[in-house]
Amino acid sequence: MEYSETEQIIDETLEFPVTHPAVIEQIGTTEITSPSGDSVTIQEVLDPVEEQEYLTSDALYTAIIGNLDDTFIGRKYYDDRGGTAVGTEPEDESTVSF
Description:
Order of helices and strands: HEHEEHEH
Shape: elongated
Radius of gyration: 19 Å
Distance between the termini: 41 Å
Structural class: alpha+beta
Helix content: 25-40%
Strand content: 5-15%
């Protein structure tokens, strides 16, 4: 599933509050697919999390999304607001249009 569908799966599958072991048992094998096509299970994402219980679906969703790796964030360092990207030289200001 796409990571954008994770919240829906959580809401439909689990009752809150829920313990960490119950999450792993019920949805731990569910795979989340990154935009690049790589996938990871919810158990793999939550393994480093030390939470024992999730009081709400938002808390669990935040734990999952917050622990996904860089392959899930899209174009790294992309900024649609213009300006100079970190680590690059600024453009010649005479070529900037407004």
